[in-house]
Amino acid sequence: MPYGGSELADISQALGEAAYQAYERALLARVLAEPVPRHLAIIMDGNRRFAAEMGMNSLSGHEIGRDKLEEILNWCLETGIKVLTVYAFSTENLKRSPEEVAALMRLFAENFRRAGDDERTHRHRIRVRAIGQMSLLPPDVQDSIRYAEEKTEGYDSYFFNVAVAYGGREEILMAIREIAREARDGKVRPEDIDEGLVSAHLYTSDLPDPDLILRTSGEERISNFLLWQLAYSELYFADVFWPGLRKVDFLRAIRSYQKRKRRFGK
């Protein structure tokens, strides 16, 4: 009995989905067979352009991007990545329209509080932290950040860092100012100032530097993110907007990292 056009389309779609799932499982198996990055940092780019392509408003794009981050956290747990740092909101983003900034702040307030209550956070002992200039954020966002940080401050199995109101140059300047004050007070000699001392004054002082930086949207730049810490990080640029990132895209980034020979300048 011949199939109709719609039936053929359904069969073709089912076969395509089955092939995709098989490829995803095979790729995951290869990733799990080799060492994964300890610290993955992500520049989550493309929410607004994704929304525009889908005929949505910007806020919808940010909301879908928020849901994608939930998936990414699960993928990191599945693959054994211990530290995840995401670039959520830069100091430059404060120059966006007041309406968009206010909507993003509402999302941050909701999401940090949700992270503090998330069963997954406590089951896996994930320490949640924000890095950036907290003083630039509204009081309710600061309160939500404190809530998540206090509820997870004793955890050390996984680390989830959200860069918000963050700028890489400002982070380095902050470290320089602190070291200058210590030198003025006689606590540090000029000859004591080295890479280790500078690193100890950064937001990420107790974490390893990122092994892999993943940026979505097809843009190939760092955009003032972790400028000191990424000196020897591997870079991977995915030509897909952040909300559209698939698990196979994530796994391909990890596989690309696994295939590289890291020399650290040697």
Describe the overall structure:
The chain has 266 residues and is an alpha/beta fold. It has 2 domains: 1-33; 37-259, Undecaprenyl pyrophosphate synthetase (3-Layer(aba) Sandwich), CATH 3.40.1180.10. The protein is 50% helix and 14% strand. The protein contains 9 helices and 6 strands. It has helices spanning 5-32, 47-53, 58-79, 98-117, 119-123, 139-152, 168-184, 195-200, 247-259, and strands spanning 39-43, 83-90, 126-131, 158-166, 212-215, 234-237. It has a 6-stranded parallel β-sheet, with helices on both faces. Helix 6 (139-152) links the parallel strand 3 and strand 4. Helix 1 (5-32) packs parallel to helix 9 (247-259), helix 2 (47-53) packs across helix 3 (58-79) and helix 4 (98-117) packs parallel to helix 6 (139-152). The longest helix has 28 residues, at 5-32. It is globular. It starts with a helix and ends in a 7-residue tail after the last helix. The model has no long low-confidence stretch (mean pLDDT 93).
General form: globular
Radius of gyration: 21 Å
Structural class: alpha/beta
Determine the mean pLDDT. 93
End-to-end Cα distance: 67 Å
Main sheet: strands, sense, barrel: 6 strands, parallel
Structural domains: how many: 2
Secondary-structure arrangement, i.e. CATH architecture of the largest domain: 3-Layer(aba) Sandwich
Number of strands: 6
CATH fold call of the largest domain: Undecaprenyl pyrophosphate synthetase
Could you give me the name of the CATH homologous superfamily of the largest domain? Decaprenyl diphosphate synthase-like
Q: In terms of quaternary structure, what is this?
A: single chain
**How many DSSP helices?**
9
* Percent range for β-strand residues: 5-15%
Instruction: Name the poorly predicted regions.
Output: none
